[in-house]
Amino acid sequence: MKARFRDLRHTAMTNLCESGASDETVQVIAGHVSQRMLRHYAHIRTEAKRKAPQAIVSQSTTPAAAEDKAAS
Q1: Residue 48 CB: number of other CB atoms within 10 A?
Q2: What is the pLDDT of residue 67?
Q3: b or e along 3-19 (b: 16 or more beta carbons within 10 Å of the residue's beta carbon)?
Q4: What are the CA-CA distances from residue 35 to residues 10, 28, 70 (Å)?
Q5: Contact assessment for residue 17 and residue 30, using Cβ atoms and an 8 Å cutoff
Q6: Contact 43, 56 (CB under 8 A)
Q7: H-helix segments, 1-72
Q8: Could you read off the pLDDT of 16-64 as tens digits, one per residue?
């Protein structure tokens, strides 16, 4: 398989986005001036989309979250 520089750029931007880096940070690193360009290059993978809601559920079931609910 032949890789193009553009393909590597897409992969790098996707990996940065999935690592938790802020949009602003990724834009600065990539040299993008708009959210549109960031969306064009950063293709968030399906697995990352699947894990995002699970992270919210995990946070709401932590001991600290349970204590917050009990205090309400």
Answers
A1: 13
A2: 62
A3: eeeeeeeeeebbebbbe
A4: 15, 11, 40
A5: no
A6: no
A7: 5-18, 23-30, 35-41, 46-60, 63-71
A8: 888 888 888 988 988 877 888 877 776 676 677 778 888 888 877 766 6
Three-state DSSP state, 33? coil
What is the total count of domains within the chain?
Answer: 1
Question: Is the CB of residue 65 less than 8 Å from the CB of residue 48?
Answer: no
- Residue-range definition of the domain harbouring residue 36: 5-71
Nearest 5°: phi and psi at 14?
-60, -45
Whether residue 37 contacts residue 54, with contact meaning beta carbons closer than 8 Å, is answered with no
Both tokens assigned to 50: 């699947």
Most distant CA pair in the chain, distance: 58
The answer to whether 38 and 32 have CB atoms below 8 angstroms apart is: yes
